[in-house]
Amino acid sequence: MGRAPTLEVADLSVGFGDVEALKGVTLEAEAGEFLLLTGPSGSGKSTLFRCLNGLIPHSFPARTAGRVCVLGLDTRRHPVATLAQRVGLVFQNPEAQFFNLTVRDEVLFGPLNLGLPLGSMDGRARWALEAAGVAHLEDRRLDTLSGGEKQCVAIASVLALRPSLLVLDEPTAHLDVPGARTVLDTLTHLCRKEGMAVVLGEHRTGSVGRIADRMLLLEGGRLVADGSPRDIFAQRELVRRLGIRRPTDEPEQPWESLIGEPARKGGVPPLAELKGVEAGYDKRSVLRGVDLAVHPGEVVALVGDNGAGKTTVARLMAGLLAPKRGEVLVNGRKPRPAEGGVGLVLQNPMTQLFAETVEEEVSFGPSNLGLPDDGSVRDALSCCDLLSLVTRPVHRLSVGQQQRTVVASMVALRPRLLILDEPTMGQDWAHLAGMMGRLRESTREGDALLLITHDYKLVHRYADRVVLLRDGRVAANGCLRGRA
């Protein structure tokens, strides 16, 4: 008799209230096998992942049917603590799984909490930090890290448990190209050399599709395709209908290759401007003498490696952070968050959601500011493809749907400058392209969009100008080539 698969999912169905998240899903993963799972936003990927380590049904009550077994253990009959030694789960939002103050303490938390031998702790932590590419951050506080750096630390904290099955929900969404390459190289090594089974959920399928053994597509909670990436991508109508990105044979180029001649605005005053800005957190400097302006009618892409200072720029323009030196101006004066004018969508949508339903969330801002009911709320819901979800509780949305809800809540305020900080998390290309197309149109009326992202395709498709940050300084700034 052969050895049982590392993972067995048999006819799994999961429901929350009136939402059927999964419908009869069946799949297997062998030791050393790399599975890529994708599908439209809200298709059930995150729900499936929570079933694989027992969070559903033990921590998230739900109606369930069917069976999930990991290394022969039925996840319904074994506690999460037991399953955690066999299944490592990395969430879309890394902060959701942090418990400590420093990077080293976070990576050690899992092994210590499970009572693993003390003699193995340092070796486990060192290996995990190096594998995730964050050994140089070992002594840093978690609250001083960029979103991408936090993602890598979350991966390291799970790797420290040396699981037999590693499950990752969009692990590269916040990562720069070097960071994503490091993570994917590590996952490939864990599969091929150490026999770990990997199940990875991702919308940016290009790089992952080249290394995965199998690709699985979810649609509306059902598994609609399971085969080699080559065979799946050959089903062009299915891929197009589900909004799946097709990989390209051309490697991503350095950001400098997208940047052409400097922009010429002919004396038009900027909507937002940084003049000689130095900024940081506590005693740590992040930005060093940055000059940057965003003008009416522009889509500006702010790019650079993790930790370069992109989110700090966003917080400055939104008035959430004061510069240590230099000047920040929005519409010619210091930014004041309560006055509007700038809409900021942060990387983690849950930090900005507080209403009960989608409609209440999107309508709260205009109502709170006493803005007239001029159709802006419905327009915002339509822009982000949320009209069919207006009565859905926000906590029952997928991460991608939550992200679009936050975008809609900002769009409904009709800000002159909208800042999107890593808007791709949880978004299939169809939803992302639809939303970005509508936002791009708004800039033709004199608004502006600052797009902070690592997504090469998104920048190439929608940006007018690209600003490259490196080590807290502007390394390059110019029109997108061919769009001057």
TL;DR?
This protein has 484 residues and is of the alpha/beta class. It is 30% helix and 25% strand.
Description of the molecule:
It is a single chain. By secondary structure, the chain is an alpha/beta fold. It folds into 2 domains: 7-241, 3-Layer(aba) Sandwich (Rossmann fold), CATH 3.40.50.300; 255-479, Rossmann fold, CATH 3.40.50. The protein has helices at 45-52, 55-58, 80-83, 103-113, 121-131, 147-159, 177-194, 206-211, 229-233, 236-241, 310-317, 358-368, 376-383, 399-411, 429-442, 456-462, and strands at 7-16, 19-29, 34-38, 63-70, 73-74, 87-90, 165-169, 197-201, 214-219, 222-227, 272-281, 284-294, 299-303, 325-330, 342-345, 417-421, 448-452, 465-470, 473-479. The strands form 4 sheets. A 6-stranded mixed beta sheet has the order 6-7-8-3-9-10, with helices on both faces. A 6-stranded mixed beta sheet has the order 15-16-17-13-18-19, sandwiched between helices. Strands 2-1-4-5 form a 4-stranded antiparallel beta sheet, with helices on one face. α13 (376-383) packs antiparallel against α14.
